[in-house]
């Protein structure tokens, strides 16, 4: 029966669809986090498949930092034309005009993303937030559950997670507790790209190589995406053929020099290259075990 | 690297210090899965926290959480990923520490194939037997036995052969059918990605070749009859009604006759709908939406099965239970059970025996502690469709959820039905409970008095009964005197017996309420779970939990029966409030502050509150 064996991508797809249907069936008010990145794109694509021919049974939520790339905002607006999409900006961040330059990457991320997400979830009363995190991204994620329970204060307690057996997810919770649900848990970066290629999923052009204005910082290329970018003394933007492996706030997202101009090129590059994708993220290297700490505080 | 690969799920098990993390780290390293920046971090960490004197310590690639890095042990199930040209592997890393049976079971639950590690210097240990038992229990039928640290015994063939033959004996006892053995070293990489010159006497495949040769378990599920647990009903508009789910066994084509369980209704498959267009056929593992040729009742939790080979339906079965909660499992306590997309309430009616996972022998057990395994009889509040676990993990494996804490308290594997649902015919009762109550001109109720010994429960309950009697109500009072000396005289005061005591009282109270009576129950009933059980048995709106609340010091000072004194002197064991806990109600309908209120006032207040609630 070898002909009937599912390929790894089809098997992963089927598992993710099963998870998405479970969240929708068993939680009262789910929401899907949408960050315009490639993983979000795959997640949205899977959700459309899971509920076809119906519409998505939950809204999308973008927790905005106001510092994303312009291309990402264009992508978001395209998604909003097709689905219900909520944009949330932490009022504290707006009041204090929080930005990576004056406040540093750690405070910027905490206020806009960690606290922003926390506030958005409690303000709208969402009891399950579906995200695109994968276990291969970072060591502390390797033990994350697919249905990950968060305390009333939305904290993650790595020692108090429920065992997950077979395809059974325990979705019971007390008032105030919520779930983070990760349908892409078992995908790797390569799986994501192969799936994007196989399914022809639209992605932000920043993933493809192009001539872009960049400056060199902390050993990586930072793109000057708009006039708010503050240059250090002596810094002068130069044009380089670069692309991004992960996307976030533009002043905090490092680009790599690359000629990969198509998904096929990117896949080839990933297989040949040997740098992990989170390397371009400045926030992971703030402090030792920093991702684990951020997760305990409620970062996705 | 090919885009089309098979997906294989692998569980790695071994004792602490068998070098499991090192072996997995080595696999990741040899397959080029470790990116340069992580490799740089590895080199740095190997020098600072490594255990190999500055050499590359591959274990550091997989030991993730801060806490365990400090403790130097793996404390939970972690998942890793690597791929070869033919396969993508998902590795569940099950820890080897004694107290972590639950993690091992979790890690093995989805595995197609297992790597079981044995330290060449130590040979088969009790932990090895434990791992082998769990693999067998969880239905992992393909096992690669990796004898590790061969470099440390000078690649001694005789020692290797001895370990393998010791293990083959265990494997035979446990019916682990597909077994391969291989000598390896995670540190030196022998026989992992390529054959080692140090073991010329070993002529088998490399570890990676062995793993690639494993079969995903879907392979044999395709030959079975169709099974699909319905996750949801898809109704985007009036013209479309589909049933969404993931096929757990068999294959389906349009036109196939199916049966919906538990109702037993039949229909034919009209279409297999997906976002990529209708499919001519779908197979095990696929997530699809089926439409049927005519409108039939079918909802979440139902199972769509081949019409001529449906699964069984039962409300009682025998199952092996693996306990995971720190609170032991007691027979009689109620748990939420989840299997496929179905949920039910479950009670363990009988622990037939515990299982010693080192000797594989049965032993006596009255309760199951965390990490314990036992063969049990399970009873549900309704009949559900299932397959025996050995045929289907999806329809034979369940979890038990604690109704109080909502933790995943245990996992179960169904062996067979004890009583098939079609043999059960509830007597059609022509005189129903409403008729009983009507003849008395009253509405049945259960007044459940709970509180410490000496709180005044029975005194107050007696006064309430007198008042109700004076109002022309037909009542009955159940208390320790008339239950403990009769119906429950076989029960003592252990935690397990207390649970059973209250379960029986709750059932009796329910029957009497069905007979139309107002039932007053006066029992310490210290555990919330049992009081909730009683509440769940009762009809909505007919159960009143009355908390007779006094501070322990007040009850002890009263000590009407001299029991506290005896308990303090150690003459009475398991006495509530002294050496056994009392869990105060969180949602009692009525609370009596019995330190401040006289019994007569309390009775007045209770009757008034109940009359008000029912008018």
Describe the structure.
- The complex is a heterodimer of chains A (300) and B (615).
- With 300 residues, chain A is α/β, with parallel strands linked by helices.
- In chain A, 35% of the residues lie in helices and 16% in strands.
- In chain A, a hairpin with a 2-residue loop joins β7 (210-217) and β8.
- The longest helix of chain A is centred in the middle third of the chain and has 25 residues, at 100-124.
- By secondary structure, chain B is an alpha/beta fold.
- Chain B has four domains: 6-212, P-loop containing nucleotide triphosphate hydrolases (Rossmann fold), CATH 3.40.50.300; 221-306, Beta Barrel (Elongation Factor Tu (Ef-tu), domain 3), CATH 2.40.30.10; 312-423, Elongation Factor Tu (Ef-tu), domain 3 (Beta Barrel); 433-613, 3-Layer(aba) Sandwich (Rossmann fold).
- Chain B is built from 17 helices and 26 strands.
Q: How would you sum up this structure in a few lines?
A:
Chain A is α/β, with parallel strands linked by helices.
Question: What string gives the helices and strands of chain A in order?
Answer: HEHEHEHHEEEHEEEEHH
Average pLDDT of chain B, rounded to a whole number, is 87
Give the CATH level 1 class of the largest domain in chain B.
Alpha Beta
CATH superfamily (homologous) name of the largest domain in chain B? P-loop containing nucleotide triphosphate hydrolases
Radius of gyration from the alpha-carbon trace of chain B, in angstroms: 30 Å
Detail the poorly predicted runs of chain B. 423-429
Number of spatially distinct domains of chain B? 4
Helix % of chain B is 25-40%
Q: So, CATH architecture of the largest domain in chain B? A: 3-Layer(aba) Sandwich
Class from helix and strand fractions of chain A: alpha/beta
SS element count, helices of chain B: 17
β-strand amount of chain A: 15-25%
Structural shape of chain B: globular
Summarize the amount of helix of chain A as a percent range: 25-40%
Major β-sheet strand ordering of chain A: 3-2-1-4-6-5
Strand content of chain B: 25-35%
Largest sheet of chain B: 6 strands, mixed
CATH level-3 fold name of the largest domain in chain B: Rossmann fold
The radius of gyration computed from the alpha-carbon positions of chain A, rounded to a whole number of angstroms, is 19 Å
What value does the average pLDDT of chain A take?
A: 89
User: What kind of oligomer do you see?
Assistant: heterodimer
């Amino acid at each position: 029966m070898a002909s009937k064996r599912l390929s790894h991508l089809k098997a992963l797809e089927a598992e993710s669809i099963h998870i998405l249907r479970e969240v929708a069936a068993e939680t009262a008010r789910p929401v899907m986090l949408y960050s315009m990145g490639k993983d979000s794109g795959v997640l949205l694509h899977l959700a459309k498949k899971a509920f076809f021919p119906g519409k998505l049974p939950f809204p999308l939520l973008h927790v905005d930092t106001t510092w994303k790339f312009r291309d990402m905002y264009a992508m978001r607006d395209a998604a909003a034309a097709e689905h219900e999409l909520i944009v949330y900006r932490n009022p504290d961040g707006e009041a204090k005009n929080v930005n990576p330059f004056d406040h540093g990457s750690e405070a910027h991320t905490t206020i806009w993303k960690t606290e922003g997400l926390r506030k958005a979830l409690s303000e709208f009363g969402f009891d399950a937030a579906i995200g695109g995190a994968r276990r291969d991204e970072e060591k502390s994620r390797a033990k994350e559950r697919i249905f990950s329970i968060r305390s009333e204060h939305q904290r993650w307690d790595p020692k108090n997670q429920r065992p997950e057996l077979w395809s059974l997810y325990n979705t019971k919770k007390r008032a105030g507790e919520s779930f983070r649900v990760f349908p892409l848990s078992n995908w790797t970066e390569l799986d994501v790209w192969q799936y994007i290629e196989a399914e022809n999923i639209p992605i932000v052009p920043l993933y493809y190589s192009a001539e872009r204005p960049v400056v060199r910082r902390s050993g990586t290329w930072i793109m000057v995406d708009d006039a708010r970018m503050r240059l250090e003394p002596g810094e002068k933007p130069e044009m380089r053929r670069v692309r991004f492996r992960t996307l976030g706030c533009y002043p905090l997202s490092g680009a790599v020099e690359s000629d990969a101009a198509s998904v096929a090129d990117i896949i080839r590059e990933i297989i040949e290259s040997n740098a992990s994708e989170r390397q371009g993220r400045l926030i992971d290297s703030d402090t030792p075990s920093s991702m684990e700490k951020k997760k305990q505080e409620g970062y996705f | 690297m090919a885009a089309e690969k098979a997906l294989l799920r692998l569980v790695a098990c071994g004792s602490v210090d068998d070098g499991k993390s090192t072996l997995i780290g080595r696999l990741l390293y040899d397959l080029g899965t470790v990116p340069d920046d992580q490799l740089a971090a590895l080199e740095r960490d190997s020098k600072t926290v490594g255990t190999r004197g500055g050499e590359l310590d591959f274990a550091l690639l997989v030991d993730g959480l801060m806490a365990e890095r400090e403790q130097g042990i793996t404390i939970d199930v972690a998942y890793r990923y690597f791929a070869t040209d033919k396969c993508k592997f998902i590795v569940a890393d099950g820890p080897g520490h004694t107290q972590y049976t639950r993690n091992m079971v979790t890690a093995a639950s989805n595995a197609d194939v297992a790597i079981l590690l044995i330290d060449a210097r130590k040979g088969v240990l009790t932990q090895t037997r434990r791992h082998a038992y769990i693999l067998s229990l969880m239905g992992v039928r393909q096992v690669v036995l990796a004898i590790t640290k061969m470099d440390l015994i000078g690649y001694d063939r005789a020692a290797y052969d001895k370990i393998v033959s010791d293990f083959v004996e265990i494997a035979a006892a446990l019916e682990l059918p597909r077994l391969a053995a291989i000598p390896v070293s995670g540190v030196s990489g022998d026989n992992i990605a390529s054959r080692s010159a140090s073991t010329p006497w070993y002529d088998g495949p490399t570890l990676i070749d062995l793993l690639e040769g494993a079969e995903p378990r879907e392979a044999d599920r395709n030959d079975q009859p169709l099974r699909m647990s319905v996750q949801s009903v898809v109704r985007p508009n009036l013209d479309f009604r589909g049933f969404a789910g993931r096929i757990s066994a068999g294959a389906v084509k349009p036109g196939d006759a199916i049966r919906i369980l538990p109702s037993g209704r039949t229909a034919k498959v009209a279409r297999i709908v997906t976002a990529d267009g209708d499919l001519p056929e779908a197979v095990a593992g696929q997530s699809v939406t089926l439409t049927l040729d005519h409108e039939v009742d079918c909802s979440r939790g139902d199972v769509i099965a081949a019409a001529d080979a449906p699964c069984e339906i039962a409300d009682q079965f025998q199952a092996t239970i693996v306990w995971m909660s720190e609170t032991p499992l007691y027979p009689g306590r109620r748990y939420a059970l989840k299997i496929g997309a179905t949920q039910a309430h479950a009670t363990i009616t009988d622990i037939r025996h515990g299982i010693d996972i080192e000797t594989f022998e049965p032993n006596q057990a009255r309760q199951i502690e965390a990490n314990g395994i036992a063969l049990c009889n399970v009873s549900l509040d309704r009949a559900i469709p299932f397959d025996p676990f050995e045929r289907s993990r999806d329809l034979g494996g369940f979890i038990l959820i604690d109704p109080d804490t909502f933790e995943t308290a245990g996992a179960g594997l169904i062996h067979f039905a004890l009583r098939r649902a079609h043999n059960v015919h509830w007597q059609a009762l022509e005189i129903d409970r409403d008729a009983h109550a009507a003849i008395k001109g009253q509405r049945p109720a259960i007044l459940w008095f709970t509180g410490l010994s000496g709180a005044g429960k029975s005194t107050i309950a007696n006064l309430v009964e007198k008042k109700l009697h004076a109002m022309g109500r037909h009542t009955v009072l159940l208390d320790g005197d008339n239950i403990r000396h009769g119906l429950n005289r076989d029960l003592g005061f252990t935690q397990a017996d207390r649970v059973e005591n209250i379960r029986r009282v709750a059932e009796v109270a329910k029957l009497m309420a069905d007979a139309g009576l107002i039932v007053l129950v006066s029992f310490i009933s210290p555990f919330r779970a049992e009081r909730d059980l009683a509440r769940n048995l009762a009809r909505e709106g007919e159960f009143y939990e009355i908390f007779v609340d006094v501070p322990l010091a007040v009850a002890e000072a009263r000590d009407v029966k001299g029991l506290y004194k005896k308990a303090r002197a150690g003459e009475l064991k398991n006495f509530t409030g002294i050496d056994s806990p009392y869990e105060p109600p969180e949602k009692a309908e009525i609370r009596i502050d019995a330190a401040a209120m006289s019994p007569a006032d309390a009775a007045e207040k209770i009757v008034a509150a109940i009359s008000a609630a029912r008018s």
